[in-house]
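Chapter summary example.
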Amino acid sequence: MQKPQHAHMHTHEDDPNRRLRRFFLLSSSISFIVILTLSGTGIFLAFKNYIHNEAESSAVRISEALLEQGRSDLIHRDAQGNARLGLDPENFQEFDRRLRETLRALDVPKIKIFTAGKTILYSTERAIIGRLDSENKKLEQALGGEIYSQLETEGEFWDLEDEQRFDVDIVETYIPISDENGRVIGAYEIYLDVSRYQHDVIHFVIFSLAIITAVLAFIFLIIYAQLRKATGIIHSKTEQIKVLSGLLPICSFCKKIRDENGNWEMLEEYISSHSESEFSHSFCPECVAKHYPELGLTEKDHT
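The structure predicted for these 303 residues follows.
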């Protein structure tokens, strides 16, 4: 008599359900990283753009206030009656003092005023007053009637108090100065320090990513738990199908069946637990004639 054959045991590496879970973990990890990267980048760029736009709007309002305050000192008429920008050397010190007080109140670290000919008429950095900035493309846009601004990091920056600062985030805005007829006669260059807002944005991005991470982790854990449960059920049913559709190890004497776990069960119990079938017991004619001869029944009597 041949020994009962034990069912083939699959290794973990061959388990398709384990491979499915590994694929889910790998794809989830990649998705996790992609979502966090895109979310963080998107949030950072959105708020950076917001800071830029707000700084530009603030610079425009500041330029309007400065022009209104210093109109009599800045705007003069030539022999033909045309408006032009200029500063009386005798009034320069008073103009500079009043302007710096205003700039301190408005938290503006640096400013320049250009004539229509690209000459620096005034600057809080006094050493550059009178220079010609002929290659400045941004200034050209302002003298053409357009507002131009950009957010950049200044590696070296001199503020209103002539103090040197490093790695400062600045929004630099060029704003045209027009006369009553709309003719551009010069331009402001206003610097606004947005370093503290940049730091706030970074903190906000980190906080947002922490929340997104927690939410994604919670969702992925729920999905993974359901996946494990589902693959466990699938694995169990698959093993049952394999046993029922393949060779059933059955004892030659007692007719018990060995299940997928190596346990021996009664035939009726095994089939009932692995299928929709139920058993009702009776006697076949052959067994009745064999075990109850006193009844005098034959197989023919049951046909």
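To summarize the output: The longest helix spans residues 16-74.
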